[in-house]
Design goal:
alpha/beta, Lambda Exonuclease, Chain A, 5-stranded mixed beta sheet, 9 helices, 41% helix, globular, PDDEXK-like_dom_sf
Length: 256
């Protein structure tokens, strides 16, 4: 008698293994960034950022796996879709200098190129029915349902402080190249990956936050170049941020 019941597993594990291996190998071939990424400055632990900047090896098993790399790739696709949707809605959105295909991405560098950031886009104009002023920084993130709902409820500053810090320092450092971008609120777009709902939030420039992040970056650069280890965020190895950190074993294995 034939069995028409669905067979769990099947060929999926074998195919997914091959995909994961290919993605992980592609990621290993990427040239490590030679600068401190401004988008990361909102991370609370300065020692973790110092390890990143110094290219310290991650703990065993903490490198990006295939699933996480697919999540990153999907995020880029959501961003591309959001760009198209906003343009269809009547916004003039530049994602490269001169808005040229394959043009140079908008960004900035400071401290001799040791601090760099690349922005998702700059809004130059938009529909009159939308109460915005231009030019305005545009940043886009794709979030799972729970994270998206929390962002909608509490706002990006409280729900996603890393993103808020990124926006503030981008506004500050892009001002010389795009005058007025710090005076006008940024537009933060968050896409719900589960439902395709879209949240938009105007984020006024937070000069104090931008200065705080800039000062943090300088501390990290100076300490790393002086071969000094910055303090941990906590005295407890069981702290939730330590449990999620890719450098926890390395960090707690060091004195101080």
């Amino acid at each position: 008698m034939m069995d028409f019941n669905h067979q769990a597993g099947g060929i999926a594990p074998a195919i997914n293994h091959l995909i994961n291996v290919a993605l992980e190998e592609e990621n290993r071939q990427q040239t490590p960034r030679s600068y401190l990424g401004a988008s990361r400055l909102g991370v609370e632990c300065e020692r973790a950022l110092q390890f990143e900047y110094a290219h310290a090896p991650k703990d065993p098993g903490k490198d990006f796996d295939g699933q996480l790399l697919r999540i990153f790739a999907a995020g880029h696709l959501f961003e591309d879709m959001a760009i198209n949707w906003l343009r269809m809605a009547g916004f003039e959105l530049f994602t490269t200098k001169g808005n040229r295909p394959n043009g140079e991405q908008f960004g900035f560098e400071a401290a001799g190129g040791r601090i760099q950031g690349h922005v998702d886009g700059i809004l130059v104009s938009g529909p009159k029915s939308v109460d915005m002023t231009y030019p305005a920084l545009w940043e886009c993130k794709s979030l799972n349902d729970k994270s998206w709902k929390d962002t909608v409820k509490r706002g990006v500053a409280l729900s996603k402080p890393i993103y808020a810090a990124q926006i503030a320092i981008y506004q500050a450092y892009m001002e010389p190249e795009v005058p007025g971008i710090a005076a006008n609120p940024a537009l933060f777009t968050a896409i719900n990956k589960d439902t395709s709902e879209i949240h938009h939030e105007l984020v006024p420039f937070d000069s104090a936050l931008a200065q705080k992040m800039s000062d943090k970056a300088v501390r990290i650069l100076k300490a790393t170049e002086a071969h000094e280890l910055l303090p941990r965020i906590t005295r407890e190895q069981s702290h939730f941020q330590c449990r999620m950190c890719s450098y926890a074993d390395r960090c707690w294995g060091l004195a101080g």
